[in-house]
Design goal:
alpha/beta, 34% helix, 4-stranded antiparallel β-sheet, 6-stranded parallel β-sheet
Length: 225
C-alpha cells in the first residue's frame, strides 16, 4: 500500500516538474520576444532622433529641386539614415510627398480658345503663379497674361507665344502670333493679325509654368523594417 502511494506521488511530482519546465520554457521565449521588441523600439527612437531634424530642414528644398518634366505629378521623397540596426543590415527612413503644381491644367489643341479660360486654369491654383506672370518673365517664357481690364493688345511682327486674357481680348496691329490664345471672353482679331497654332510653343510654356512643393498635409512618416 505504501509502495503504491509512493508511486502515485512520484508520478505526480514528475508531471508537475514537466509542467513547470514547459511553463518556464514558454516564459523564457516570451521574455526574449519582449526584449527584442524593446530593442527594436529603442532603435526606432534613435533613428527618429537622427532623421527628424534632417527631414524638417530639407523637405521643401528637396522638393523644389525635382525636375519639372518628371512623368508623374507626385514624388515620394525619402531620407535614409546611415544608422544600422545591430540585428540587420537594413536601414530605415523617413519620407514625405512632393506635389507638382501646374498653371495649365491641360494643353490646348487649337489656336483660338475663346470663352474657355476655366477649362485650362484652376482659380485655386492661378494665384500661386502671380509673381511668374509679370512682364519681366516674358523674355524667358513667352506667356502674355492680360487681366480683365486689359482688353487690347497691338501686335507688331511675328511672335511665338501663348496669350491668356481673363476677359475679352482685342488683337490689332500687323503680324503673326504662333502659339495659342485662351480667353474668358471673346477674341476680336484684326484683319492684319494672323493666329497659327504652334504645339512646340505651347509645350515649352506649359512645362515652364510649373513648380514643386511639399504636398499639403504631408507628414514625417517612419518606414519600419
Amino acid at each position: 500500500m505504501n509502495a503504491r502511494k509512493g508511486m502515485v506521488t512520484l508520478t505526480l511530482l514528475l508531471l508537475l516538474s514537466s509542467f513547470l519546465m514547459i511553463t518556464m520554457w514558454f516564459n523564457q521565449e516570451e521574455l526574449h520576444f519582449y526584449r527584442a521588441m524593446n530593442a527594436q523600439q529603442k532603435f526606432y527612437v534613435q533613428n527618429d532622433a537622427v532623421l527628424l531634424p534632417i527631414s524638417r530642414q530639407n523637405l521643401n528644398q528637396e522638393c523644389e529641386k525635382l525636375p519639372l518634366d518628371y512623368r508623374h505629378s507626385v514624388y515620394r521623397l525619402e531620407f535614409k539614415n546611415t544608422l544600422k540596426n545591430h540585428r540587420t543590415s537594413d536601414s530605415s527612413s523617413h519620407f514625405a510627398w512632393c506635389e507638382r503644381v501646374s498653371l495649365f491644367q491641360r494643353m490646348p489643341s487649337r489656336g483660338i480658345n475663346a470663352g474657355e479660360f476655366s477649362h485650362y486654369f484652376d482659380p485655386a491654383i492661378t494665384p500661386l503663379f502671380a509673381r511668374f506672370l509679370s512682364q519681366g518673365n516674358i523674355g524667358n517664357y513667352p506667356l502674355y497674361w492680360f487681366s480683365e481690364q486689359e482688353k487690347h493688345w497691338e501686335i507688331n511682327g511675328n511672335i511665338y507665344a501663348v496669350v491668356v486674357a481673363e476677359g475679352d481680348l482685342i488683337l490689332s496691329g500687323k503680324g503673326e502670333l504662333r502659339g495659342a490664345v485662351i480667353t474668358q471672353g471673346q477674341v476680336y482679331q484684326g484683319e492684319n493679325v494672323k493666329l497659327v497654332y504652334n504645339k512646340q510653343t505651347l509645350q515649352d510654356v506649359v512645362q515652364a509654368y510649373r513648380f514643386w512643393r511639399l504636398a499639403k498635409r504631408s507628414w514625417y512618416d517612419f518606414e519600419s523594417l
